[in-house]
Amino acid sequence: MAFRRSPALGVACLAALGVSAVGPASAQERSASSRDVRGVLELFTSQNCGDCPPVGAAAARLGAAPDLVVLAYHVDYWDYAGPKDQLADRRNTDRQKSYAKRLKLGALVTPQVVVNGQKAVDGGDEAALAKALKDAPFGCAKLGGEVVMRTQGDTLRIEARAPGADPARPAPILVLVTYAERVETTMPDEGNGGTRRVDHHPVRDWRVLGSVDRDAIEVEMPLGLLTENDGERTGLAALLQAVGADNKPGPIIAAAALEF
């Protein structure tokens, strides 16, 4: 992964770091901009949660809209109730805990949808989710945040900026989330051999790429390290997110996504 901050680094500095300057767009280039995205729905779910499938289906229907990014984080605290959720990760549970503390939600619950990092919605009511998207639009508009993703050859480039960032406050962070379009799993079913379960947009991995202040940053990563070679369609979402003094995730300022 190559990281650079613009415009402070010139071409000579980039060459020294082993990062090439961005040239003209190739014919195969794909791109996505946060200007075309109005919301992010983060669903916290589990394959062992009986109430979760309808919520996942509702979120997936909303996620079919090109201006919404839907991410399903499978948590691990339901694993006691049945076979281990193969999509679960303790880091997903930690992310939900961080939201719960910042939003003062109390105990962890599933299914739960966090809208734009600002508001939690329980249940699969699509009308409630649509209302939450309207009531909790991308936050911190004064930061003027923007994210642009583009591919060039085998490289993914992500550029993020927050020109209105306050130097006296923690800088927003750039988070890259890798997810599958859909995953089918056969869940063991006593006496019946198994039940097929379909999960939409399950998160495979997420990582913080860096902090974003008044200068734009650009990150370059090989696509081969991000996409899964298992025949499933893979999505990559870049989230520009505010953080508090305690480093808890705050409002999502901007987001963009590409699917392969």
From TrEMBL:
Alphabetical keyword list: Signal
Annotated signal peptide: 1-27
Record protein name field: DUF1223 domain-containing protein
